[in-house]
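Dear colleague,

Following up on yesterday's call, I've attached the two folding results inline so they're easy to grep. Please treat them as preliminary; we haven't cross-checked anything against experimental data yet. The first protein's sequence and structure tokens come first.
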Amino acid sequence: MADANFVSGLASAIRNRDSFPAMPSDLSLDDGYEIQKLVVEAVADGAIAGWKAGMTAPAGQAAFGLKHPLIGSLYGWGRLENGATVEMVPGVKLECEIGITIDANGNAKSAGPVIEVPRMMWNSPDDAKGSNLTATNIAAYHYIVGEQQAIRDDYEQLAVTLTRDGETVCEASLSDALGGPKQALQWMLEEAGVRGMKPADDMLLITGACGGIHDGEPGSYVADYGPLGTIEFTIQ
């Protein structure tokens, strides 16, 4: 059974953008998902806008002691639109992703660019473990949503380039996360079923980082997704 004081402290840290509290030393992955559910209930204010895939790259999994990706929830209050300004707070990161909007049966309705802005602020570097990350709801915070379009068959042929003040931050294929959006969607639906998470109409599923995770530094950003469009945002 999750410790109520720890859950309350973790939820408070997420809401108030503080460092995460010291994490328990012996959490299992199932413990992490149990805590995640309670944290999401406390932080989401009843508005779960969708799901997020995390730790989709083998290198990231290895660094956190994992052998597979993770799944978490998107907060309704976390959604931002193209052109947004994100406040520079400790722990802010950036990931270039594809988001898929689904119906209540999990069928894809549309897809498009998304910049995830997670916030990962450990009390100690030793806390950076997969089970602990799961408990934090995979560091969910903001996400900037671009134009949603019809599902395509050629994501593996497309790429994204993220720049800050004209300098390249990353370039990556859109098949970088779990082999591409369609494969990622299938994995997310299967994992959600295992974790007791049910789809709902118009949920947004963001399918994992293309090009890795990057520190959010002050500046003007452009994420160019080619024919899928661009997302522009500022961190200040």
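Below is the second protein, in the same order (sequence, then structure):
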Amino acid sequence: MTVRLAIVTDIHHGAPTTTKRGDAALALLDDFARYVADARPDHVLELGDRISDLDAVTDRRLASEVADALRPVREATTGQMLHLCGNHDRDHLSVAENEELLGQSLGHATLDVVDWRLVLWRADTRIRRGPTHRGFVLVEEDLVWLARTVQAADRPLLVLSHVPVSGHAQTGNYYFEQNPRSATYPGAERIRAALALARVPVVCLAGHVHWNTITTVDGITHLTQQSLTESFTTQGEPAGAFGLLELGRTVRWTVEGADPISFGFTPMAHRWTPRLPVFSDHPGLAERPRERA
């Protein structure tokens, strides 16, 4: 039996900023509600960055407006609408304030849907801007929870996060080609090592980087979905990205809008051969001494 999940991410409601068309967000959420009503998914996933942050008062108003706009989406689905926090949701608002506005706990959670398990890895997404550290922080408790959840899995996993963890190249990305450290967590290789502990198929889905990507690492397929309001790939018009992920023995991911993609694959439980170290550090590959004449 196939599980069908509708996906929206990086709504960025607010004033337009650089390539983000936040002024179109609420109208596009009306379109998303109609899309969900037609598609009739089992659940809806909203992967964070609901607003473009400004200050605490403005952010609370913007987040409340998004919560209101998402009510018709929640009413249109036969299952649950599940949320994550993005970095913009956390600049001036706490997790508790986001929970209050959305009427939902935003701690780590799992949800079994038919033969799959959804892993809502709601890791810390607040960006630090202090003198000693700028960027994301990989909180140890978040990593340990993920590792234990993955190790205990008895069915295929869909791991959901706001920030991608594949480490995929940001070449051509408007925001992150010159700022790759802001595209993922420091120490993301530890996250990938935790995912590799799974003895079941694993698929990862994230937002944050504002483009559709497909990356396979260690036999695990990582997807990132385009922002609802991003325009750097769509000549100034908002992408209007709505996704549908269908999970069964095979997986089908389709993104509608001005930046569409469709991709199908069979998730695998096997992992790849461990990588070589630096050639010069490997005794079996070190250059042989030149033979004397």
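For the second protein, one point worth flagging: The mean pLDDT is 95.

Best wishes,
A.L.
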